[in-house]
Design a protein that fits this description.
Two copies of one chain form a homodimer. By secondary structure, chain A is an alpha+beta fold. Chain A folds into four domains: 2-89, 2-Layer Sandwich (Uridine Diphospho-n-acetylenolpyruvylglucosamine Reductase, domain 2); 96-212, Uridine Diphospho-n-acetylenolpyruvylglucosamine Reductase, domain 3, CATH 3.30.465; 216-405, FAD-linked oxidases, C-terminal domain (Vanillyl-alcohol Oxidase, Chain A, domain 3, 3-Layer(aba) Sandwich); 420-457. In chain A, 38% of the residues lie in helices and 20% in strands. Chain A is built from 17 helices and 19 strands. In chain A, helix 1 (3-14) packs antiparallel against helix 3 (49-62), helix 9 crosses helix 11 (280-296) and helix 14 (346-358) runs antiparallel to helix 15. Chains A and B meet through strand 9, helix 8, strand 11, helix 9 and helix 11 of A and strand 9, helix 8, strand 11, helix 9 and helix 11 of B. The structure holds flavin-adenine dinucleotide (2 copies). Residues 32, 67-75, 78-79, 90, 110, 132-134, 136-137, 139-141, 143-144, 146-148, 197-198, 202-203, 322, 413-414, 449 of chain A line the site of one flavin-adenine dinucleotide. Chains A, B: Residues 36-213 form the FAD-binding PCMH-type domain. Chains A, B: Its EC number is 1.1.2.4. Chains A, B: One of its GO terms (biological process) is lactate catabolic process. Chains A, B: GO terms for molecular function: D-lactate dehydrogenase (cytochrome) activity; D-lactate dehydrogenase (NAD+) activity; FAD binding.
Chain lengths: 457, 457
């Protein structure tokens, strides 16, 4: 690694948009969670694909690591420069390149955030559904295969990225996918890049599927006597084929946190937050059928949010749930778990996790995108306490093992970063070595986000 | 390649289930289309993953090609053993391994066909939607990333395969995906294998997503004054977000073919065949709104098929359309084209293709899954005529170039096989070399379905 020579060459391309200043570097050593690492050697702010390609060529020539950076909201230390090198911050590549309403697609740069995109789409009748709560960048969301509250209806980034432009480690630029709705042409490089966490290439452009803004929307907050009843209601709703747009679970502790943080007044019992999208008649029909199922599962308190403001407040509260949980224990850091299991095993997975938590000194409110079998315990740890960190590690390890035992995955949506690297072999077995072989084929020098995803050379 | 030694070793494992007989080998040199090649050296009929893994080990040890075979219905010579070796026919691996209605998934062996699966699901309230017309094997459908009439609503094999078991060229067995609805764990090896046409591994098991059988179904046959009106109707229906389960286009020539072959009496003008799935009320609402749009686009003759028998007859006719077209010209072979473009360019793509065909001596009825922007011209060629074959090649080349120019793909659903290898570089540019690198990483000796998908070593 010849870092100085590399930075000199990159500076010749970017000028002041290559920063070696301590505050900028420190900013790119931040993570939302308990995971920490030192800063990169410099941060680059490219404005075009050509600039990204030049950076990659230079870094390859000098054997310098390259780490992509979107909005820095990922939860497993994904964007931390474990081996130093250059962090490539896509903040200045945030334009909409082409909107094609007739095809319901949009071509964007990776630094655009999902909220930025949806603000720009407001008057078009279209929207981009993937909703991880945080205002993440679309490049980062593709890189982590993000999802969120609406995946149960609209899918994850896997389903909503139609094509990409990607700069490879050596500076070659490839385009994956087309603007056609489907293709059987060749290996699915789009899907390979989605979820690759910046270890196979740097995404410089995305073609995204858009969806029609629903004609009618209806949301509800439903209290349940216990977690099993809430999960039972979810399973039955899915089996009846009622097309929910969102179905979110909050346990009693999360409800308490949200009440305090967002001035809500929900009873301190498990809740489902649910939303339907469709025509007026369709939504009314769905809501009625869901209401019957929920009542059968003992949901007594049942409030429909029909006004736009009420719904906005509801989802703002849901999106603030992470902060709300953190606020339960001032000074604590969040250790965010993220398992996903087959729906039929969801109640079991949540119950066993609750039992673990009840027996532990570390608090951990539980919430999740239960329509996908996906839930999180937000473990609230004192970052100064080695015991608490060890306990959180044990709890999250048990959740991961449980998810695998039940036929699920150690991460439903947050990804691997370096926080979950230790589970890759358990989840993928010989498949993990195949991932290593692919990494080796595309990034033979191991310069793209080193220390992540695959076994280190 | 030490073929005799390899066959001896495989025979020791499979006994009579390794066939060197000429008829069996010839049967595995058949293709549905104008593409032909010599037979493999032998055909293996394994019954378990372990047997497939042993075959792969033996073939690798002796440097012998391995070619997967499902139902042999692919249309670009995919399953032809271009370099000889062993064809692995999955016909005897056709069991349902595990049905999990609560999770709406099923685990199957690759040789099971989609009709076989749906017959077994009939009384469960569930079905598997991907419908390529032919009674293809599920392994072959995954390998070609197949779709068909219902993709506009339920997606393609990309969307409906949740996980796989795959035997790699050296005999290692990997499992991709999990039984959970989504995951952000690692590179998406499932998506990489789907559409890889047996060049990266042999699929020995699939976990598939099932869907609820719709409560209500309604289908219609609508005649349009011209192709532009029919396509305009499709585009507007999509933009209104009306959730069609199927929307198929037949041009006047296809209609004539179907009338003759299936004793139908449609007027000889372009038609749309459409189907809605949902609740009684939902389907009625959708049908009404579609009816309005179709009428605005000049659809005069408009027949609803409400009875199950009428719908069955309708889709049987659609599925027989290929044979119906072949019957237009006895003795002809089909050269089936398969392009896919963004919806907004569909009318243009079909019109230009029709103009080409009008000026050509080779007949080519056009039909397609227009809700996806996907259509086929069935070129009817005299296999003895070098001029006609050259003309068909020219026509299909122009369709492929047109699709790329309009932002689409050279194959919407049939895949590459060896018929379309010549377009890979034009469609993927530098991405094709990346595919080559992945092939090299997973199958370094190039033994899996050689001569397909990537540039030959
Ligand atoms: C409060 C809160 C709630 C959240 N809720 C959810 C949720 O519901 N669902 C969910 O999925 N996630 C959730 N997350 C996690 C996070 O928002 C997602 O992981 C998101 O996709 C990260 O995007 P980002 O732009 O912040 O990426 P970053 O954190 O900047 O980077 C993430 C990874 O992507 C790589 N990367 C970034 N840009 C590029 C690029 N252009 N090319 C190649 N690689 C790149 C980075 O190197 C890194 O490996 C939540 C986070 C917070 C803080
Ligand atoms: C009348 C007709 C209509 C059609 N309509 C459509 C349509 O609407 N949509 C559509 O998508 N296709 C259509 N097709 C094409 C064909 O049905 C599909 O390509 C189908 O997916 C092929 O499946 P198969 O089992 O016949 O595969 P095969 O032809 O046997 O093999 C196809 C490829 O898959 C590989 N393969 C097979 N099994 C395995 C395995 N277990 N592991 C690894 N590789 C394997 C083979 O090596 C080969 O490369 C049609 C074909 C016909 C004849």
């Amino acid at each position: 690694m010849r870092i100085d020579a590399a930075l000199g060459d990159i500076e010749a391309v970017l000028g002041e948009r290559l920063s070696r200043s301590r505050p900028v570097r420190e900013q790119h050593a931040q993570s939302e969670t308990h995971l920490h690492a030192g800063p990169p050697d410099a941060v680059a702010f490219p404005r075009s694909t050509a600039e990204v390609a030049r950076i990659a060529e230079i870094c390859t020539a000098h054997r310098v690591p390259m780490v992509g950076w979107g909005a820095g909201t990922s939860l497993e230390g994904h964007a931390l420069a474990l081996k130093g090198g250059v962090t490539i911050d896509f903040a200045q590549m945030d334009r909409i390149l082409e909107l094609r309403p007739e095809d319901m697609i949009v071509r964007v740069q990776p630094g655009l955030t999902r909220e930025g995109l949806n603000a720009a789409l407001r008057d078009t009748g279209l929207f981009f559904p993937v909703d991880p709560g945080a205002d993440a960048s679309l490049g980062g969301m593709a890189a982590t295969r993000a999802s969120g509250t609406t995946a149960v209806r609209y899918g994850t980034m896997r389903d909503n990225v139609l094509g990409l432009e990607v700069v490879l480690s050596d500076g070659r630029v490839i385009r994956t996918g087309t603007a056609a709705p489907k293709s059987s042409s060749g290996y699915d490089l789009t899907a390979l890049m989605v979820g690759s966490e910046g270890t196979l290439g740097l995404i410089t452009e995305l073609t995204l599927r858009l969806h029609g803004q629903p004609e009618a929307v209806s949301a509800a907050v439903c209290a349940f006597p216990d977690m099993g009843a809430a999960v039972g209601c979810v399973i039955e709703t899915i089996q009846h084929g009622i097309p929910m747009a969102r179905i979110e679970f909050l346990d009693a502790a999360s409800v308490t946190a949200c009440n305090a943080y967002a001035q809500m007044e929900m009873p301190a019992v498990p809740h489902l937050l649910i939303e339907f999208h469709g025509t007026e008649a369709g939504v009314a029909e769905q809501a009625e059928r869901f209401g019957e199922i929920a009542a059968e599962h003992g949901s007594a308190d049942f409030q429909w949010a029909t006004r736009t403001e009420d719904r906005a407040r509801l989802w703002k509260m849901r999106h603030a749930a992470y902060r709300a949980c953190l606020a339960l224990r001032p000074g604590a850091e969040g250790w965010v778990t993220d398992v996903c299991v087959p729906i039929s095993r969801l109640a079991e997975a949540v119950e066993e996790t609750q039992a673990d938590l009840a027996a532990s000194p570390v608090p951990g409110p539980i919430l999740g995108h239960v329509g996908d079998g996906n839930f999180h315990a937000i473990l609230l740890v004192d970052p100064q306490s080695a015991e608490e960190l060890a306990e959180a590690k044990r709890l999250s390890g048990r959740m991961a093992e449980r998810a695998l035992r039940l036929g699920g995955t150690v991460t439903g949506e947050h990804g691997i970063g370096f926080g979950k690297l230790g589970y890759m072999e358990a989840e993928h077995g010989a498949g993990w070595a195949v991932m290593g072989a692919i990494k080796q084929a595309l990034d033979p020098l191991g310069l793209l986000n080193p220390g992540k995803m695959v076994a280190s050379a």
